[in-house]
Amino acid sequence: MIQVNDKSFNEKIKEEVTDYWTSRAEIFNELKIQELNSDMRGRWLEELQKYLPARKGLKILDIGTGTGFFCFLLAAEGHDLTGIDLTEKMILEARKTSEILGIPAAFYVMDAEMPGFADESFDAIVTRNVAWTLPDLSKAYEKWHRLLKTGGVLVNFDGDYSREAEQQKLPENHAHAKITQEQWNAYEHLKTELRPISNPRPAWDVKLLKSAGFKEIILDEQVGDRIYSEINQFYNPTPIFTIAAKK
């Protein structure tokens, strides 16, 4: 792994991520609403509940919330949700959807590596397909550890996307069918930039989490088989993992 501490490089990565997701925000939000109204809702909720404390009213931070999928899923279960995302357009879509669904959650434009909250603010942090895009994952995990209350839990769903195999053929109704060639090119370029500054995951995550002070780390590399048990419009062909850890 190449060590990169160049602020300008890190900012460049974040700008590329923001530009990519700004271009996809509206269509992405449509997909997430469909997902909330499908069998996927129950599958994701079941996976989350394996790790979250079994009580109502948890203060939960959704990092890289996108248009709010995890926020709406968990707020509907009686929890207090805050979602952050680097992309303003995503946050605007999340706020609109919150009003439409009548499910309250607070949404802010923030950098996942530097969330602007006081230490020990949350009972849980959840995140999905975000950590792989962070140019300084070690820094992020250290900050997330500080944000959790003692005994709090991080639940991270992700994949080693910068090392994923070539995309397989997907159904015509799949969400990626609407991605333009320009967007595909931007995604592939991002992968080539992130690959040299990371190690193979999730083994790398386990190491970084331990260094950040997390304990009771649980790794599940079969979660994708349960979530994506059939090839439909929501299917993710890249193997994903869950890594959960306590403060």
From TrEMBL:
<dbReference type="GO" id="GO:0008168">
    <property type="term" value="F:methyltransferase activity"/>
</dbReference>
<dbReference type="InterPro" id="IPR025714">
    <property type="entry name" value="Methyltranfer_dom"/>
</dbReference>
<dbReference type="InterPro" id="IPR029063">
    <property type="entry name" value="SAM-dependent_MTases_sf"/>
</dbReference>
<protein>
    <submittedName>
        <fullName>SAM-dependent methyltransferase</fullName>
    </submittedName>
</protein>
<keyword id="KW-0808">Transferase</keyword>
<keyword id="KW-0489">Methyltransferase</keyword>
<feature type="domain" description="Methyltransferase">
    <location>
        <begin position="55"/>
        <end position="183"/>
    </location>
</feature>
<dbReference type="Pfam" id="PF13847">
    <property type="entry name" value="Methyltransf_31"/>
</dbReference>
<dbReference type="GO" id="GO:0032259">
    <property type="term" value="P:methylation"/>
</dbReference>
